[in-house]
Write a structure and sequence with these properties.
About 0% of the residues lie in helices and about 40% in strands. The chain has strands at about 1-5, 10, 15, 20-30, 35, 40-50, 55, 60-65, 70, 75, 85, 90, 100, 105, 110, 130-135, 135-140, 140-145, 155-160, 165, 170, 175-179. The strands form 3 sheets. Strands 1, 2, 4, 6, 8, 11, 13, 14, 16, 17, 19, 20 and 22 form a 13-stranded parallel beta sheet that branches. The protein has a 7-stranded parallel beta sheet with strand order 3-5-7-12-15-18-21, with no helix packed on it.
């Protein structure tokens, strides 16, 4: 499925089973959060606001915050660079997930491998997640392995031009942090 939001307001977005793409830009607003279930999901967040947490599912998912949309309804457009502001956290669950942040704000934290309260759909996430921060600001922290109990992923965090207000916490696994 493909969901494209360029304006207007929706309560929340639940990307159910199968492979999904969410493209968000302009003045679009999601009041609550975005939940991506099983399937390979791509989230391109190039504008607007999300009022809650983004949670990936149990496959290989990719989130990009900040960029230029190039199509709308499968038609080429001359997009304008933008970024989504997120009031909440990003929880990267099962799969080798990636987050690239080029601009925008995240008022919560980033949880790789396991997530908030060990909520991972797979119970024990030993996957290798990647976070690349080229710009923007995260008010909270980054947790590579949210719990040190069998959540052993070899995760990577690169901070190059972004601001992280909290800590970068590594726990289980052979995690790499580059500044």
């Amino acid at each position: 499925d493909t969901v494209e939001l360029a304006g207007g307001t929706v309560g929340d977005i639940d990307l159910e089973s199968s492979n999904n793409t969410l493209i968000m830009w302009g003045s679009a607003s999601v009041v609550a959060g975005v939940n991506a279930e099983s399937g390979t999901d791509v989230l391109q967040l190039f504008g607007g606001t999300i009022g809650g947490t983004i949670s990936t599912g149990s496959a290989i998912d990719a989130i990009t915050i900040g960029g230029t949309p190039t199509t709308f309804n499968s038609l080429p457009i001359a997009g304008v660079f933008g970024a989504t502001d997120i009031t909440g956290s990003i929880v990267m669950e099962g799969g080798n997930d990636s987050l690239t942040m080029n601009a925008g704000t995240l008022t919560g934290s980033v949880y790789m491998d396991a997530g908030l309260g060990n909520s991972n759909a797979l119970g024990a996430d030993g996957f290798d997640d990647t976070v690349t921060l080229n710009g923007g600001a995260i008010t909270g922290s980054i947790f590579t392995d949210a719990k040190a109990d069998a959540q052993i992923g070899n995760d990577s965090v690169t901070i190059d031009g972004a601001t992280v207000g909290g800590a970068v916490s590594t726990e289980a696994g052979d995690d790499v942090v580059s500044l």
